[in-house]
């Protein structure tokens, strides 16, 4: 049974720890302020975690509660005790096993990515009464689908564009690593450009193709109110505008969804 959303615009301090980047922000409803990012690899010790937290909280004072949304267990273990000490135990850790504002039917709820949980919480609040396809385009690309009744229909996980580039470089003798960027043409005239074009357009057409199939899924095809598509993640602004299916792009959707889960307990 889905729990009701806590939609009050109270300030919540949120830490989102991803495989590539860690983001801290103060979230109040739809507003994110004091946003600060680090490379997750920079925060792998107790000292570096404490220093980052001290730096952030020196600028963001008076926030009553904190939420941790981490897909990296090592870093979650570093930040949780620090947050508990700073916020007098008023710390929520996002998990698939916690009370959620949607019905999660997953073989092992504890194993679903915390970022996916937070994204679906935001999707359910952002598009009430509508089915939603929520896509996080980051280190991995994840699709998660909610029907109009906020019931989870399932998802997909595939490699993100940076992983594609790194894999080509690491698993071949001569192909270089490249950074995929906006404006890649369809055809390249150097090895680097051929890789950029291939990864960029391969990812765009992959996303388009999966979206087209999902829109014909039985749980979505019969939705008279239409299906919303929500994009987030570090590469959403790069790939989203090239999609043929209209989508809402919100780079802070996971932060906002984590804030909505403040106060929930497993």
TrEMBL record:
Which of this chain's residues are annotated to bind ATP? 16-23, 139
Q: What are the transmembrane regions?
A: none
Catalytic activity field:
(R)-pantothenate + ATP = (R)-4'-phosphopantothenate + ADP + H(+)
Q: Where does substrate bind?
A: 106, 113-116, 191
Q: How is the cofactor bound?
A: A monovalent cation. Ammonium or potassium.
Annotated localization: Cytoplasm
Keyword annotations: ATP-binding, Coenzyme A biosynthesis, Cytoplasm, Kinase, Metal-binding, Nucleotide-binding, Potassium, Transferase
**Highest taxon, organism lineage:** Bacteria
Which pathway does it operate in?
Cofactor biosynthesis; coenzyme A biosynthesis; CoA from (R)-pantothenate: step 1/5
Q: Which residues bind K(+)?
A: 136
Q: How does it assemble?
A: Homodimer.
- For this entry, the protein name equals Type III pantothenate kinase
| The organism of origin for this protein | Prosthecochloris vibrioformis
């Amino acid at each position: 049974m889905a729990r009701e959303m806590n939609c009050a615009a109270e300030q919540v301090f949120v830490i989102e720890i991803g495989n590539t980047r860690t983001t801290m922000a103060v979230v109040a409803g739809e507003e994110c302020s004091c946003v600060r990012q680090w490379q997750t690899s920079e925060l792998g010790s107790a000292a570096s975690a404490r220093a980052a937290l001290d730096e952030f909280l020196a600028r963001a004072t008076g926030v009553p509660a904190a939420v941790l949304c981490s897909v990296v267990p090592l870093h979650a273990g570093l930040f949780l005790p620090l947050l508990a000490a700073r916020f007098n135990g008023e710390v929520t850790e996002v998990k698939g096993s916690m009370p959620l504002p949607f019905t999660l039917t997953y073989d092992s709820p504890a194993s679903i990515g915390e970022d996916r949980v937070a994204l679906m919480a935001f999707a359910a609040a952002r598009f009430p009464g509508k089915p939603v396809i929520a896509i996080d385009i980051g280190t991995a690309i994840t699709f998660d689908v909610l029907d109009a009744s906020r019931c989870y229909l399932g998802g997909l996980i595939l490699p993100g564009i940076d992983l594609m580039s790194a894999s080509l470089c690491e698993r071949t003798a001569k192909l270089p690593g490249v950074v995929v960027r906006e404006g890649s043409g369809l055809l390249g005239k150097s090895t680097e450009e051929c890789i950029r074009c291939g990864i960029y357009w391969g990812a765009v057409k992959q996303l388009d193709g999966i979206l087209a199939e999902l829109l014909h899924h039985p749980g979505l095809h019969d939705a008279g109110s239409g299906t919303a598509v929500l994009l987030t993640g570090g590469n959403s602004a790069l790939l989203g505008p090239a999609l043929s299916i209209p989508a809402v792009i919100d780079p802070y959707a996971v932060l906002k969804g984590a804030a909505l889960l403040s106060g929930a307990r497993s």
